[in-house]
Amino acid sequence: MKSLFVQLALLLAATFAVAQAPSAFLDKSAGPASQVLPPELKDIGIDQRLNQPVPLDLQFKDEAGNTVKLGDYFHSGRPVILNLVYYTCPMLCGEELAGEASALSMLRFTPGKEYEIVSVSFNPNETPQNAATAKKTYIERINEHLDPKTDGSGWHFLTGQQPQIKQLAQAVGFRYRYDPASKQFVHATGLMIVTPAGKIAQYYYGVEFSPRDIRLGLIEASRGNIGNVVDAVLLYCCRYDPNTGKYGAVISNIMRLAGAATMLILGGFLLVMYRRDKQGSNHATGRA
Question: What is the CATH classification number for the domain harbouring 68?
Fold first, then answer.
């Protein structure tokens, strides 16, 4: 009964985080939100390590059983979406991976082309076979709406040993623990966007994610190497807020943009009127 209560509390906490700031998962900024969480979740959460490096030399196994380094997925110069899950999780991780796949399917970016995805299991007992099974499920999910489709080469599902898992979890601020009573892991949920240089740029919390925010996060992390003119305008008008894990409007930049647009429209109107007036004068002179 206790383990069931813990899992239900985690599911409610993760769902709550979709619409709220990540304060419930942050140790120092939790405040009143942490007071409503059960004691079982006291040491569980995700601490932001913004602009801190991810240890790219850590070794894992990919879904095919090959030994790989985390840095192998940063050689292309593309930003990386990173998350820690475990593939046999009965509740939260499946919700998180499904929410991730659904959001990414709406980006109009293809994994392996504009960006990479790396999902790492924090359960040292899981195998590449577990990873391969999960990959098949969520590649099918992301391809439900993705255009063009992905062949799966851009989403990597990794497993590893406890020392490497622990080092990665500490580097990204992911706090979790194993519950012997339920034989499950107690953990929070979230995605991280990492720059091509391997530094953590942004965090997104919960089990559902905003496609717009993730798209802007990837573009910003890539330093504008992906995206289009509309995205550039949105980034000018919006700014990532680490306290909320979302992009919000920058009113001053919107006002500047609106002012510039007004001046362009007014200038164009005056130019058209000037040309019409000049043409009218020429016709009048010719008739005289």
Answer: 3.40.30.10
In a domain, 226, yes or no: no
Residue carrying structure tokens 């330093």: 223
Look up the domain containing 123 and give its range.
2-208
Other residues' Cβ atoms within 10 Å of the Cβ of residue 178: 13
pTM comes to 0.73
Q: Provide the residue-wise pLDDT of the chain in tens; the chain has 288 residues.
A: 444 444 444 444 443 333 333 433 444 444 444 445 566 667 899 999 999 999 999 999 999 999 999 999 997 789 999 999 999 999 899 999 999 999 999 998 999 999 999 999 999 999 999 999 999 999 999 999 998 899 999 999 999 999 999 999 999 999 999 999 988 999 999 999 999 999 999 999 999 999 999 998 998 898 866 655 455 545 456 656 777 767 665 443 434 434 444 554 554 545 555 466 555 555 555 555
- In this structure, what DSSP letter does residue 114 have? T
Strand partners, 190: 205
Task: Output phi, psi for 84, to 5 deg.
Answer: -105, 125
Query: Taking each helix axis from N to C terminus, what angle separates 128-142 and 92-104, rounded to the nearest 10 degrees?
Result: 40
Amino acid of residue 237: C
Considering the domain architecture, whether residues 193 and 282 belong to the same structural domain is answered as no
End-to-end CA distance of the chain: 101
C-alpha span between 210 and 192 (Å, rounded):
13
Rg (CA), the chain: 24
Does residue 217 lie in a domain region?
A: no
C-alpha 120 chain-centroid distance: 15
d(Cα 219, Cα 269) in Å, to the nearest integer?
35
Shared-domain flag, residues 166 and 275: no
